[in-house]
C-alpha cells in the first residue's frame, strides 16, 4: 500500500498506544510498530500494521515517529544509545512523544534530537483508554509552530482538542496540571460516594443529579460506573497517576507554586499504591477513602 501520507513508526503499544496506532491504520497511514510484548505486536499486525523486531528497524524509514511509553526513564531508554531512535531515525524526521514525562526530559530530548536533524514535539494526552479508542483525546503540545502544523493531521486522527501550549516541555506542564485536577476531582467524588452510601442514599440517583449541576464533571461521567460497581479494571493505573503526581509536585516546587490540596492527594495516591492497589484504575482512590472511613475493602 503506497500513498502520500507520512510513514509512521510507533514505539510503545500499551493500553493507549494500541488503539491509537489502530486509529492511524484505519485512516490509511502505514504504521510500523515496536513494543516489548509479542501479543501487542501481533495485535498491530492483525490490524494491518507492520511489526518490527527492534526500535532501529521500526524507525529507519519513518517520516513521523510516535512514542507512547510510561515515564521519563523509558523515553530516555528508547531515544538514546546505539539502538535508540536518535541514532537510527533519518534526518528530518518528526518525533512526537505522547508519553507523560517531566517537562525537563522533553526539553532535553528536543535539544539532543536537534543535533541529529530530528525535530521533536511533546504531545501528552488526556482522555484515558476510552478517549484513545474513540479518538477524542485532548492533546497538549510543546514545540515549534511549524512542527505542530506538520503534526496536526496525524494528531487529528488521534484526538479532538489539540492545542500548542508553548515551547518544548509546555505540553508536559499542561499535562501535569491536568493530572493534578483529575486526581483532586476523583478524590472529591470518592469522598462523596462514601458519605452518600454511609448516609443510606441511593447512590445511582445521587450521582445522576450531582452530575447535572455544578458538581458535574467529565471525571464523574467517565468514572460513575467504576464507583457504583467497584470496578477498578485499569483505564489509567494508580501507578501511573503516582508518577504524574510526582511530576506535578516537583515541577510546582521548581517554579514556586504551592499545591496544598494536590500534595494531600499525592500522598493518598502514594498510600493506595503502598497498600498494593497500584495496578488498579485511579478511581480506586475510593478504596483509600473507604479504609479511612472504617469500611472493609
Radius of gyration, whole Å: 20 Å
Distance between the termini: 53 Å
**Strands in their spatial order, largest beta sheet:** 3-2-1-4-5-6
Shape: globular
Q: How many strand units? A: 9
Order of helices and strands: EHEHEHEHHEHEEHEHEHHHHHH
Q: Output mean pLDDT.
A: 97
- The percentage helix is 40-55%
Structural class: alpha/beta
Structure, described:
The protein has 297 residues and is an alpha/beta fold. It has 14 helices and nine strands. It has helices at 17-26, 38-46, 55-59, 72-79, 85-88, 103-114, 128-134, 145-156, 170-198, 203-211, 218-229, 238-255, 260-277, 285-292; strands at residues 8-11, 31-34, 50-51, 64-67, 94-97, 119-122, 125-126, 137-142, 159-166. Strands 3-2-1-4-5-6 form a six-stranded parallel sheet, sandwiched between helices. The protein has a three-stranded mixed sheet with strand order 7-8-9. Helix 6 links the parallel strand 5 and strand 6 (119-122). The longest helix has 29 residues, at 170-198. The chain starts with 7 loop residues before the first strand and ends in a 5-residue tail after the last helix. The mean pLDDT is 97.
Task: Describe the structure in brief.
By secondary structure, the protein is of the alpha/beta class.
